[in-house]
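Take a record.
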Amino acid sequence: MESITWDNLKLDTSEIYRRIGMPDADSKRSQNFKPVIEQMRLKALELIEARCIYDYIPVEVTGPGEILLANQYPIKAVTSFFTGATEVLIAIQTIGFPLEKESIRLFEAGEMLDGMVLDGCGTVALDEALELLRGMVVEQVLARGLQTGHNLCPGGYQIPLEAQKILFTLLDGGELGITLGEGMLMSPVKSHTLVIPVGEKLNKPNLSCAITCEMCAEQQNCAHSRIKFGKSKPV
């Protein structure tokens, strides 16, 4: 198991606007929020503690709708994403508790706009950390002459949420201060788990370092979808 700290997050302003439901950052209405956006962005940069643990483990498609992780843990999955994979990258990532605590404090103090924007900054931070992780993994895997697949997150249509329990068995989330509740939800809230198939010739390769919405089952319904707003990043 490896660990890494991300200390180079930018918190892209246009992404913050999108995360609070205002995708057109250049519109007159959006510009009215510019001072609070920048204030909360700077505050967020002081509060974020972006950290990650990860490992590469064996994977095998063992039957229709099922894969086997680390030679012992069966998981229901859309197996087409794992066809051709011999291993997967598994990861747990978080931005820590400080931003979450401050956002809650702002809401409780009646500073609803500040709290909402700060919370949005936290989501952008987690997205950017995911993109940094994705870039690192693609670089590592390509250097080995292999391919990466898509980012697959438990709770999406490719892997059920229950898979989080197995990932927490294989990785020590406690090292990051993350706990997994009975409902398979993590604390701090701004945390996520990730699975990326790796193999010599994948059925569904994806060598892009960019994080896209294309593989998300909720892409057309999500209030923050880049596809919905015509701002999808290139694959």
Remarks:
- The chain has one domain: 2-199.
- Strands lie at 2-6, 50-63, 66-69, 73-76, 87-94, 147-148, 179-180, 186-187, 191-199.
